[in-house]
Design goal:
By secondary structure, the chain is mainly beta. Helix content is 0%, strand content 36%. The protein has strands at residues 8-12, 27-32, 40-47, 56-60, 69-72, 82-88. The strands form 2 sheets. It has a 3-stranded antiparallel beta sheet, with no helix packed on it. A 3-stranded antiparallel beta sheet has the order 4-3-5, with no helix packed on it.
């Protein structure tokens, strides 16, 4: 198994137009702004192996998802309820 480390990171503050790192795959950390007993939530996204955009994918709350995400759909998660951070194993050329 390949050892992959996060070397670039940031916070997703706006999902009105979706989110990508211009072709660089990334993972997300979802942090609840309120106390919750939920252990996961659904994120509308495209993984690097998917052919089409969109589709609900369960991601953990309070931990990094092991998924390699290529694109997060517009308004895919409620940013009023959650803080969302991205992490990548390579430096992105641009944040879209």
């Amino acid at each position: 198994m390949e050892d992959v480390r996060i070397i670039a990171k940031g916070r997703i503050a706006d999902l009105s137009k979706g989110f990508s790192l211009g072709g660089v795959p990334f993972s997300v950390y979802v942090r609840s702004k309120e106390n919750t007993m939920l252990s996961d939530t659904l994120l509308d996204c495209r993984l690097i192996g998917d052919r089409e955009k969109g589709g609900a994918f369960p991601v953990p709350i309070g931990d990094w998802t092991p998924a390699m995400i290529a694109y997060i759909s517009p308004n895919a998660i409620d940013l009023q309820k959650y803080e969302v951070y991205w992490g990548a194993s390579e430096q992105p050329n641009k944040i879209v």
